Amino acid sequence: MRRALFAAAACATAQVGWPQVGWSQATAPQIATGEAVSGQAVSKPEIAPFARGSFDAIRKAHAGRPLIVHFWSVTCSICVAELADWAKLARETSGVDFVFVNADPESDRHRALSRMEKAGLRQAANFAFADRFVERLYFEVDQAWAGELPFTALVAANGRLVTEIGALSDLKLASWLADKAER
C-alpha cells in the first residue's frame, strides 16, 4: 500500500538552515493556505520561508481544521522514498490540510525543488527552513525535537498537537485520519 511511507526508520536532518533570500513573491500565509497557487498553472513548486514564528502562523492559518505538517530532507532516504506517497495522501484526503517543510540548506534547494516536482507537490503548501539557527525552529515545533527526520506534526481541529519522529505507522496515521484528529 504505502510501504515506503510508513517504514519504521528515521533519518538525521541537515544542520544548516536556508537563508531568507531568493524566496518567491508569495507570502508564507498565502503558501500555507494554498492561495498562492490555487487557480494558476505553476511550473515549479512555490516555497515559502520557514523561520521563527512560522509554525505558529501555519497553525493559526489552519485553525479549526485538522492539519498535518510533514518535515523532510533530500538527505533522508526514508523522506525521499515516502514523499510521493505523502503527496498522494494530501491530494486524496479531504477535510485535512497538509503542509510540507523541507529542512535542507540552501545549497540543496535545487535538489529539494526537483524532489518536490517529481513527488507531485506542485500545488501543495511548501516551506523550507530559512534560519541558520535550526535548533530554534525545532524547539518552536516541539521542545523535545532534536531535528530527526522524517518528522510529522499532527494538529487536531481543536489545536491539540501530537508529533512523531520517524515514519508514521499505517495504524497510527489511519486512526488519526479516521478521527479527523479530534482526540
UniProtKB/TrEMBL annotation:
Residues 22-182 form the Thioredoxin domain. PROSITE patterns: THIOREDOXIN_2. One of its GO terms (molecular function) is isomerase activity. Keywords: Isomerase. Signal peptide: none annotated. The keyword Isomerase applies. SUPFAM superfamilies: Thioredoxin-like. This is Thiol-disulfide isomerase.
